[in-house]
Amino acid sequence: MAEGGDWEIHLRTLSSSARDSNFSNDPASDSSLLHSVRKLIQLCKSENSENLIARVYPQLNKIFQRSVSSISQSRSSSGLLLLAILQYFIDYGEFVLHDADPSLRTFFRSCLSREFADPVVAEATLDFLNLNKRKILLTFPTLLPQFYPLMLKLIAWNGEKLEKPFLKVFPGLMSPGSFLPLFISLVDLPVLTVALEKVEKSSGPLIGSSIATIQKSAAPEMLLALMDEAYTGSTIGDGGADSESEESNSITSDPLFLELLKDENDGLAQRHWTSPGMEAALQAATSVPSDRLKQALKMAPRLLDVYFSIALHDVNQSLKCALIPMLLDRNSKLFPDKIFSYEVRKRLLNFMLAAFHQSPEFVAILKKPVVDRLGEAYDSPEKTELALQLCWAIGEHGGGGASHKDAARELFESLELLLYENLSSSRLGVGDSVLGSSSSTVRRSSQSRLLCFVVTAIAKIATHHRELLPRARVSLGKVAHSRISDARVWKRARDYLGLMNEPAICLSVLGPSGPSSGSIQKPGTINWSEGKTKIIANIPFYILGGQEGPPHHDFSLMDILPASFTSQINPTTMVSAAKIKSIDFFRKTPRDLTEASLSGAGISAIAAIIIIFLFGMELHSYLTISTSTAIIIDKSSIEDTVRIDFNISFPFLSCEFASVDNRLNITKTIRKYPINRHLQTKGHEFNSGPITHTPKHDEKVDETYGEGSVALNSHNFDKITHEHQIVVVNFWAPWCHWSRLLRPSWEKAAKVMRQRYSPEHDGRLIVGNVDCTKEADLCQKHHIQGYPTIRIYRKSIDVHDDLGIPVHESYYGDRDTDTLVMKLDDLVSSIGTDSVKRSTGRTLDYTKGRTAPLQEGCRIEGFVWVKKVPGNMIISAFSGSHSFDASRMNMSHVISTLSFGSKITPMMMSDMKRLGPYIGVGHNRLNGQAYMTSLEDRANVTIEHYLQVVKTEVSGLSHNMIENYEYTAHTSLIHSHSIPAAKFHLEFSPMQVLISENSKPFSHFITNLCAIIGGVFTVAGILDSILYNTCKLARKIDLGKNY
């Protein structure tokens, strides 16, 4: 009782907050509201009350919408309140039929974009995402990748204190659409921090609101600035402003900063690094870095570690291939901090080499950007290091492998060009006079190192592709004879020339790191039959590692002895064999002391056959799974529900009025498709549309309304619909209550239309009516099942159904005279444009009209959840503003699928063939059954199905517990005085069937096997002894011996 009183109090708090004018515009300003929301959600989880969940939802939804709408004017934080409500939407969205996806996107777009700088909201957001990470990634996989820029702003602003929970969320930011843009954003995380601090400096602590204002106002200013730059040559941000405010404005209007401050992923955008505002901001930030910037400089490399780890293991080849050119481009465009640049470049190069190792063909595919970077090798130390690594990758992977000879040749030519350019211009000596001794030494050292790698790459790629060997010998010969200042370069070229004269050794030293497809030779082995007889004893292997001297080797005798030899000298083998033999239980009799007999051979053969036969029987028994069945009381709780899947076709029930009534709003789980009488689907899914109220009629009925509409019948209907642009027809019945309410309004509206658009002079609009009691065939031809039905026929429509009836619209709006006149005027004004709109697929306004079903039948498919109590599922025609002629309703139907509980997949059934006699027989007993009636034979017929449902649980060995529901069905036809229906009466049995699978323990199998072998061997020995001794005794008797 106390808990019930508590939730009543908190629910009243929510209701009063939603109604109170003081808080209706800003619910977040109510300090007690958040406590009430959290308490109610906690009670929903603890009590698991469907009533409480349903009562809380409207209030929470209203508070959520008002909080979102008041964020821009509110001075209070709405983040915690919205997160609490979002938790309710995620937990109970399926029950209350609320799609949480729009609400989550609204929170990110409207709330978090303004409050990400609030540490409490930021931490609560990460906790929320981690708590619901699995459900968000499965149900809303595009949410986090879409808002990854906003999440990066959150971590950039709040720093390392939120890094640990952010790293748990980080993998969810990656998707095929965000993979490449996310890399750029991670590299520019320090720049993002600078941009955020600039916004804070110019606008104060409300940084999120200031960014929103900048983003709204910056688009037209940026467009004008870009146009000015294109036509006048001036750059964005020029203006010579010296004041601090003008500097801040130029910073926030810079294109890079605007790109960084975005909240959503809008694809891969080009970022410029040459704007004055950008350079000034970065220079000022690096001179005196803030604590927040220092944290961002430390976090970015760690985030890149996670990013590259996921990229190597989970990302497809095409995305990794697309990432490498971006990586090459950004290698020299990093935030100007030495430690940060070093850490990031190290990770970029490591990932590039790892990607080339995984997919060597990338070297050939990306030859264009690779060649471009080789051409920039001497522009800066960073580009020199990148070119060095690329040279290593080209040589190590043979320019992409044996299948990419053209690409390998182009890469080889690029290496030659780089080599000849250095030799011809003497780069190793030019410029030393104008540089200091220290800088010139560093320059010469880096260039010599690069040349060593170029020489090695040329030798290795020529070893992979033998057709390039002559050119490689020429190139290396020029280097060897150049005798440039650094001896390491020309000595390396000389050594490689010597290796190339020994093909076997060259392939072992410079060949691929693994066995290639064209050769079975392994790395490090030498096939001397391919070389000369001379053995080169001093091969300088150390040159591949760039070491100054040969490696140090510490060999021991045990390292080179074969394993078989070492096992022979194992000290444990020297233990006395005599002591071990003393414990032998099975002493052996010398073969010379035994005697074989024909009887023993025969009994041995028979015993072996018996042992093999019994072994097979025992093995079959061991492998056979035994099954036990028991009937127990169903242990399901009162709150448990059962899913009912169905697919039922009604050839004579229109989708326009077909409804499923089980006292639940199930429109999201059921779909309707128009079908013809042959059960063939015609057209797309039929959407009923939101008809939320009873149509309005004229308040006063004028009995002297007269006849204003044209009476249509089967003789003049087709003629009139083909001669006029628009024909609006009222299909009615005199006995129908709704038809009698509509008739005065309809005739008065028809008179007004006749006066405005005379059929004799204008002819664009005809308002008609059809009395379905007199023209029953015409109404049936046009699929009329409810009265009154207003249909709109257009002359310009060329789509027809199977009976040749043009596709038309149904009107469901208000039925008073003014509304009808307004609707008819709109139809006339739409002539000439409406056909174009319909052809482009424009959605109709459901308050005015929508496309009527093409066929008179309907296929209803979907599922419902019901409690395990006796109940009904009823399918019938229903409308709150139409009447139905029960004598004309035919509820004949064909059941394609009707099952309870989870479906047993074919794979699962294949593993459960042994359970065939126990399960699966009654799972879909009504599938494929047809129940057809004829109006000529019996009218007003309701088809009732009585279903007894029994729960079956299977506890298997190779799968988890399986729940299955089987049922029996009995059907009867009942003459009904009301509207006919198809009724399914459900009764769940209080008992359930439990099927268990049991296997024989392996210990029993071994025990029985030993018993079989020992028993047969013993019995055979006894029989052999008896037979042998009997024969021996018989021979003695024949010889006359008594002993």
TrEMBL record:
<dbReference type="Pfam" id="PF07970">
    <property type="entry name" value="COPIIcoated_ERV"/>
</dbReference>
<dbReference type="Pfam" id="PF00085">
    <property type="entry name" value="Thioredoxin"/>
</dbReference>
<dbReference type="Pfam" id="PF13850">
    <property type="entry name" value="ERGIC_N"/>
</dbReference>
<dbReference type="Pfam" id="PF14764">
    <property type="entry name" value="SPG48"/>
</dbReference>
<keyword id="KW-0812">Transmembrane</keyword>
<dbReference type="Pfam" id="PF25154">
    <property type="entry name" value="TPR_AP5Z1_C"/>
</dbReference>
<dbReference type="InterPro" id="IPR039542">
    <property type="entry name" value="Erv_N"/>
</dbReference>
<dbReference type="InterPro" id="IPR013766">
    <property type="entry name" value="Thioredoxin_domain"/>
</dbReference>
<dbReference type="InterPro" id="IPR056856">
    <property type="entry name" value="TPR_AP5Z1_C"/>
</dbReference>
<keyword id="KW-0732">Signal</keyword>
<comment type="similarity">
    <text>Belongs to the protein disulfide isomerase family.</text>
</comment>
<keyword id="KW-0472">Membrane</keyword>
<dbReference type="InterPro" id="IPR012936">
    <property type="entry name" value="Erv_C"/>
</dbReference>
<dbReference type="InterPro" id="IPR055450">
    <property type="entry name" value="AP5Z1_ARM"/>
</dbReference>
<feature type="transmembrane region" description="Helical">
    <location>
        <begin position="1005"/>
        <end position="1027"/>
    </location>
</feature>
<protein>
    <recommendedName>
        <fullName>Thioredoxin domain-containing protein</fullName>
    </recommendedName>
</protein>
<dbReference type="GO" id="GO:0016020">
    <property type="term" value="C:membrane"/>
</dbReference>
<dbReference type="InterPro" id="IPR036249">
    <property type="entry name" value="Thioredoxin-like_sf"/>
</dbReference>
<feature type="domain" description="Thioredoxin">
    <location>
        <begin position="690"/>
        <end position="829"/>
    </location>
</feature>
<keyword id="KW-1133">Transmembrane helix</keyword>
